[in-house]
Amino acid sequence: MAPPLLLADSTQNFRGDGFYFNLFSLAVFFGLFLLWIRSCWWAAQDVNHVRLSADLWNHILFGCGVLGILFFWLIPAAVGAYFFLIVLGIGPVLVYIYGFRNPKVKPAERLLTPQHIQGVVLRLLRRRPAVQAADALPNLPMRFVGKSSATMKENRARLARVEASKGYRAALQMVYDALQARATDIHMEPSKEEMAIRYRVDGIMQTVEPMTRQLGDSVLNIIKVLADLDITEKRKPQDGSFSAQVEDRLVDFRVATAGSVVGEKLVMRLLDKSKQLISFEKLGMRESMREIVHRLTTQPHGMIVVCGPTGAGKSTTLYACLNDIDRTQLNVITLENPVEYQIDHATQIEINPKAGKTFAGELRSILRQDPDVILVGEIRDKETAESACQAAQTGHMVFTTVHANDAVTAIARLIDLGVPPFLISNALTAVVAQRLVRVLCSRCKVAYKPNPEMLRKANLPVDKIKHFHRPPEAEGSKSTCKRCGATGYHGRTGVFEMLVINQAIRDLIRETPNLNAIRQEAIKSGMTSLQEDGLRQVIEGATSIQELLRVCK
């Protein structure tokens, strides 16, 4: 028998009498051909995302596909021809997805899993898994608690209103998943087709499965009703709060909305009030600094300022200061916005500008309540700053925060607010600057030998430091750690810079303030910079040098 060829004599054609093509088979072939082309293009883009070799996989997918097409035209039997075409054309793509790609990405990003396939089907049907019937969803150990802004009591009418709404279970699932992921914030960001959902975990935004725009708008309205916001107003910014009973604890949520060109965006801050007050040791503060802070916090008067950017853990450090003193023998009053932790033996006052309760106004009033220790959540204006400084000079211990990059610029920040330098120099006891760095996952972190040149630039002993640590992704690891969700980090710890105000620094502040002179005097007095304290965490294996450079630029 003559070898099978595409063009052959009609009497010798293995495809039957006559010269013709089976149009159905030809259509299937071109469909598989286009699927192979699309798969090769997608894989060429995806390998960079998962940090695999682009050259290797491009050659594998292209070479196997060409070989499959060749076998398809050479093999006479249709079953065998299609078998080789599918195995060689599509098989390597499946091997890439299941064997190499999926183990390296987060569960929400894995392809061709039952959840992914279900999501694709439902998206094509303009639906999402979250809009299934209520009895098809698992029972979650939580429920929303709508509170009245006037009485802070549970509002059953508001709860009944949202429980009967479409998307209620989707809202429950979204919030519960965020709590399970240790998120501190939930972002709902609209686009024309979808409502993107992102969680902030350990200070980093993580994208999760989005919702359809219709379902996302329903969930957003449910949250607005719970927070007692106007659901008809979608352009002006609004803010409110509500709570949720999660198992045996109560979690508060601060809600803020803002209008955008494609719809309304919503951000929720998660505040778990069941958390215990943290100690300086758990903050990551070294022992020598803890001893200094303890000595300063137990003084009868003065002002300790904690500075850093938003989300740097300033409020947590203030709570650690309160945890360090004997509150049973002192009158402790706090001014917070919002109240994040419940503190025993302390009077906590929540600031509410809409109700006329401002930091400055409340600070003036509590000075008549005979306080020993005052915590002011944040200094934002001249009046609050001057009142805090005056309170520190009249027999009160004041703990507060300002937004500044380091300890020295915190002093400049107070001066910029309009506080006289002599008032600052007399009131200020110490300034603590801080950042939060992510802690390497203890299960999957990887040790490596650092570059000696880098160690010399950091003034570290080359012969004494054996290794640093970094996330497994940097090593191209294919394993996925369930503890950290393949991020390589789990939790956060602090790096600190402490400026203790001595007489020399007071004199420099009282005179025409010169930040460089103050910084030089502080270094001479033993101040350790944020970067230097962070290197201690790197050497101990708590975090990576890449994470330190990201946070302390």
Architecture overview:
- The chain has helices at 23-49, 54-74, 78-89, 91-101, 114-124, 156-163, 168-180, 213-226, 280-283, 287-297, 314-323, 359-366, 382-393, 407-416, 421-427, 452-457, 503-510, 515-524, 530-539, 545-551; strands at 142-145, 183-190, 194-201, 204-212, 238-246, 249-260, 263-272, 302-307, 332-336, 347-350, 373-376, 397-402, 428-440, 446-448, 468-470, 489-500.
- The protein is globular.
- The protein has 553 residues and is α/β, with parallel strands linked by helices.
- It contains 20 helices and 16 strands.
- Strands 1-5-6-7-2-3-4 form a seven-stranded antiparallel β-sheet, with helices on one face. It has a seven-stranded mixed β-sheet with strand order 10-9-11-12-8-13-16, with helices on both faces.
- The chain folds into three domains: 23-104, no CATH class; 134-272, 2-Layer Sandwich (Beta-Lactamase); 280-435 and 494-529, Rossmann fold (3-Layer(aba) Sandwich).
- The chain starts with 22 loop residues before the first helix and ends with a helix.
- 40% of the residues lie in helices and 21% in strands.
CATH homology-level superfamily of the largest domain: P-loop containing nucleotide triphosphate hydrolases
Provide a count of the helices.
20
Please indicate the percent range of residues in DSSP E strands (runs of 2 or more). Answer: 15-25%
Q: What's the CATH first level of the largest domain?
A: Alpha Beta
**How helical, in percent, are the residues?**
25-40%
Distance between the ends = 75 Å
Q: Give the uncertain stretches in residue-range form.
A: 1-14, 126-137, 474-478
| Secondary-structure-derived class | alpha/beta
Strand order of the largest sheet: 1-5-6-7-2-3-4
Largest sheet: 7 strands, antiparallel
- Average pLDDT figure: 84
